[in-house]
């Protein structure tokens, strides 16, 4: 039976429909938010993998281009692999939901969100988050929700929940916040140098709105009241715990080793001893049973590690590597690491290192977006690469995963706030961060290195940006905020709170919580400490490069900008691109326009022309060729010309390259001409007068005959008489 629940949320109708579609899923919810429609389905596997060391949750966000009236690009004309935006949307749903499933739950869960219709002012990501929360809550899957998310903007000093596209374009803040009714547990934000107290205000404002959506969900969940499944779980006996506790002192000592690899090797060695003990004492046990027993011992070992780590940090107020709670690891920064790139920088924080490279290209090299937003492309791109050697391991190589896409997006949001607009700097800009070492906070190292590489490339950024990752360790009611967390503090901690900004304010924010949520008090403390750390890092970066370079690298494309009349654009392009192709080939002396040595020409709809090339002479030659095409003949003036072709009815004359005209046989001479070739030859230089336009609207030309010396004398005598 179909059930419909409706409410008004911030001026928009929010409607939940249950029981009509996708009824074979464990649970399905259709969310109508304005004219945005998202179907959220949840399915749980019947079989359980108790040997898995993680909860197998998969959240999908499927963009259907029909939802915005688009046909997919490319040859196949169907949706392919998820766009970066779809991947980020899925992460934005996964992150606040994952901590709310029971720790010992190991049944595979899939949450599939399909975007069916989109109203641009009603964000489908928010509808999908709500739908995912309700779908799981109305299924047999155990879940400590519900959750919800909202977007917070700030326009003219006023905070707005779920802004329209127009309002967002005017906003100094783009904040997505998710959480339960008790607390915030996920944050994703970009901002135009917002103050810490302003960000806290926006976060709390967003959480108040979330509570409204939670209340709406709770009403539905209570009414439908779906019983939760009983699930199989691993039982860790006291005997196992006692045996593992025998290594407590050794594990405690291992956790206090400062050097990362040595620490991890020591911990792994102790764990391997335990595994060997289990194998030796259970030789006659069937393999399946033995593997389960090993997993139980490993889980007990991990719990002990978790407990000891918390005692060290919260009780003893010590960090595993010996640092103070607010102490940043050793920093180093340099530029021009690579000789031939447009800009490069190396940034190292402890055992985390990013090599970032900036490349400049023509505006027409921007990234084309084939997604659900109205935005067609972007001219600033940041890509993040995380090879397995950066952590001393082997692993998968191939297309970027969710981690790479997410970290790259965070860095891009942070640096975008200081990137000059295309009028100031008409280039497409790509930054690539290569992570060479990693022990926590590699995304923030990417921001620092990326910022310096932009400055080294001569990009006139508005200010320098640095990033820092904050952590949280809780033990009962006690908690400790950590500055510049490393890998273990992230893995065993309760919060990963990344903050990037300039000396003046916050540019980007990302927070993931592994516990149910955090308080305003903790948020305030974390932001205050992050600001102190950010200012220290900026000083180190300034020691490497104080300001953006005034000149571009010799290897970067130079640029020349000028304007032509919009009606002349077609002439420059030519039929099928014939003319502009010829210009590129001749000016650059290349056969193909795709040759790396080819000059690049960008022409917008308003007649703005931008020419790019490393060689200024080629730029000047290109401009000259375009000038010749767009230059116009003036009525009443006489121009030197060359006869290019003779026809029965007249001569084709060339004034300059790209500018030709026909002189009719009747206007080649005052005398009657029977055969043009008797009087003119190809290559003859003539003076041609521009009379105006003929009846057909074409330029009317005539050859202006040169008077002989004798004729001039006779005319002068007659005039004097």
Short description:
This protein is of the alpha+beta class and 721 residues long.
* Mean pLDDT metric: 91
Query: Total helix count?
Result: 17
The helix content, as a percent range, equals 25-40%
CATH architecture of the largest domain: 2-Layer Sandwich
Number of strands: 29
In order across it, which strands form the biggest sheet? 8-7-9-10-21-20-18-19
What is the CA-based Rg, rounded?
35 Å
Q: Which structural class should the secondary elements be placed in?
A: alpha+beta
Assess the beta-strand content as a share of residues: 25-35%
CATH superfamily of the largest domain: GHMP Kinase, N-terminal domain
Annotated CATH topology of the largest domain? Ribosomal Protein S5, domain 2
Apparent shape: elongated
Domains (count) = 5
Describe the protein's architecture and organization.
- It is a single chain.
- The chain is of the alpha+beta class and 721 residues long.
- It folds into 5 domains: 222 residues, GHMP Kinase, N-terminal domain (Ribosomal Protein S5, domain 2, 2-Layer Sandwich); 78 residues, Polyribonucleotide nucleotidyltransferase, RNA-binding domain (Arc Repressor Mutant, subunit A), CATH 1.10.10.400; 214 residues, GHMP Kinase, N-terminal domain (Ribosomal Protein S5, domain 2); 73 residues, K Homology domain, type 1 (Ribosomal Protein S8, Chain: A, domain 1); 83 residues, Nucleic acid-binding proteins (OB fold (Dihydrolipoamide Acetyltransferase, E2P), Beta Barrel), CATH 2.40.50.
- The chain is built from 17 helices and 29 strands.
- The protein has an 8-stranded antiparallel β-sheet, with helices on both faces.
- β28 and β29 form a beta hairpin.
- α1 packs parallel to α2, α1 packs across α9 and α5 packs across α8.
- The longest helix has 29 residues.
- The radius of gyration is 35 Å and the shape is elongated.
- 37% of the residues are buried.
